């Protein structure tokens, strides 16, 4: 029987931008120089790891090649240059290639895989849009209350779906509202409320956004496991306060008192057998994540339950697996592998030993870490910023007896606060693409919300966590 062959579109290579060309040249120089210039205090494998680390910094900052490609390149270079089975001789105790390849199937990656499949199922069966319609009904009428409803629902969805998917879903609800509004500034406020809430909501759970997974993976490599519920106890209080700040900023600057917004909402839940199975599996998975202290099943293991069950019942298929955000999983894997290499070669101790960190107070260090996370995540991707900062920061915490859980969580959450530019995060880009939001308005809201969140992270949250006994 003749079979049809599915063809893919021909990929046309685009001319690199000036920034990408500069990144390629500088990245190559940064990679090769440590090979030829002896550096005091560094072992040969640590020098090679420094080359990989510098290359990753330059490529992730300039996007000389796609972010996911840099992640794959990091793993390959580690296997070839600093593993016990690589091309170059290494000292005793060096990790084998398996240790670096293992990052691709790290337990945190499995957790994210389960989260992605659940999110894809929510879109497949229309659960996301239907939930949004049901939850928005109490917020109709007052413009300011509508913004509160939009932000609350977006944040809740973003805790369990990717920020990008949540933003796209919510704009499907919001676009008809914007079409009938005559006040341009109010339209901008409504459009901005979605990415702001999506970025903030992602902080709330381990599966909400890649920086959270990167922090969990780095902490696990240091022998520290954080449960799904414990992460929520650490992050949700900050998430709620920053969400309230974001709402206050938006309604103050964009939504005049007395503004009324009518919502055309309709929910039609899928009642097919497949949808019902999905609802049960999704509900059970979330319940198991939330009750880990009661049953003791690790959240990473729980994350694989929906993958196995939904595929076995054919509720989700191989085609659905193809739709998952595999580049994000690879990007997180690259960050995990980078952290493994930096720690295994002793590069972290050398980098951190060049600064007298003990001369700084703990508060000052926390301020620096939160500031770095916020600053970098505004100009490069949140994942890239977390990949670069978290391994070094955990090494710093270990060397000067800081609580490395606090360090990892602070940087991960700070990276989610970078939202002042269209390039800062995909939700911002989606909002900007609607034509309703100017860069000036986005920067105004992003800077205020980001700085307020970073101040809370540096000065309030450590005290809050300690007082409640969470840390």
TrEMBL record:
Keyword Transmembrane helix applies: yes
Keyword Metal-binding carried by entry: no
Topology class, membrane: Multi-pass membrane protein
Gene Ontology molecular-function annotations: phosphate transmembrane transporter activity
Transmembrane segments: 20-40, 52-77, 97-119, 145-178, 231-255, 275-291, 297-316, 328-347, 359-380, 392-421, 441-465
One Gene Ontology cellular component: plasma membrane
Subcellular location: Membrane
Alphabetical UniProt keywords: Membrane, Transmembrane, Transmembrane helix
Protein name: Transporter
Organism whose genome encodes this protein: Bowdeniella nasicola
């Amino acid at each position: 029987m003749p079979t049809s062959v599915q063809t893919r579109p021909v990929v046309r290579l685009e001319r690199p931008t000036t920034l990408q060309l500069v990144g390629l040249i500088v990245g190559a120089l940064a990679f090769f120089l440590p090979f030829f210039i002896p550096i005091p205090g560094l072992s040969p494998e640590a020098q090679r790891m420094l080359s990989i680390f510098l290359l990753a910094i330059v490529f992730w900052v300039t996007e000389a090649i796609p972010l996911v490609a840099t992640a794959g390149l990091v793993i390959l270079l580690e296997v070839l240059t600093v593993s016990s089975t690589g091309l170059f001789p290494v000292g005793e105790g060096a990790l084998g290639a398996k240790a670096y390849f293992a990052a691709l199937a790290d337990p945190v990656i499995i957790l994210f895989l389960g989260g992605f499949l659940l999110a894809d199922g929510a879109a497949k069966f229309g659960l996301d849009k239907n939930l949004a319609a049901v939850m928005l009904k109490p917020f109709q009428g007052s413009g300011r209350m509508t913004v509160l409803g939009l932000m609350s629902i977006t944040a809740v969805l973003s805790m369990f779906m990717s920020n990008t998917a949540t933003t796209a879903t919510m704009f499907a609800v919001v676009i008809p509202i914007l079409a009938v509004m005559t006040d341009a500034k109010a339209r901008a406020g409504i459009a901005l409320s979605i990415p702001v809430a999506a970025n903030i909501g992602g902080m709330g759970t381990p599966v909400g956004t890649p920086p959270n997974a990167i922090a969990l993976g780095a902490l696990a490599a240091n022998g520290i496991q954080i449960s799904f519920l414990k992460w929520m106890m650490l992050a949700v209080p900050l998430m709620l306060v920053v969400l309230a700040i974001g709402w206050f900023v938006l309604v103050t600057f964009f939504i005049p008192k007395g503004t009324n917004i009518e919502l055309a909402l309709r929910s039609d839940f899928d009642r097919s057998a497949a949808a019902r199975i999905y609802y049960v599996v999704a509900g059970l998975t979330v319940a198991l994540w939330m009750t880990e202290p009661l049953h003791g099943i690790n959240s990473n293991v729980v994350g694989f339950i929906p993958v196995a069950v939904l595929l076995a019942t054919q509720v989700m298929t191989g085609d659905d697996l193809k739709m998952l955000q595999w580049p994000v999983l690879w990007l997180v894997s690259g960050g995990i592998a980078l952290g493994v290499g930096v720690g295994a070669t002793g590069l972290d101790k050398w980098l951190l030993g060049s600064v007298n960190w003990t001369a700084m107070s703990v508060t000052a260090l926390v301020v620096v870490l939160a500031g770095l996370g916020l600053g970098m995540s505004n100009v490069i991707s949140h994942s890239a910023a977390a990949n670069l900062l978290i391994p070094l920061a955990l090494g710093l915490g270990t060397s000067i007896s800081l609580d490395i859980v606090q360090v990892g969580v602070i940087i991960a959450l700070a990276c989610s606060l970078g939202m002042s530019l269209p390039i800062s995060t995909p939700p911002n880009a989606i909002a900007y693409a609607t034509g309703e939001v100017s860069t000036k308005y986005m920067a105004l809201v992003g800077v205020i919300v980001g700085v307020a969140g970073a101040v809370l992270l540096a000065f309030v949250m450590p005290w809050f966590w300690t007082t409640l006994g969470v840390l």
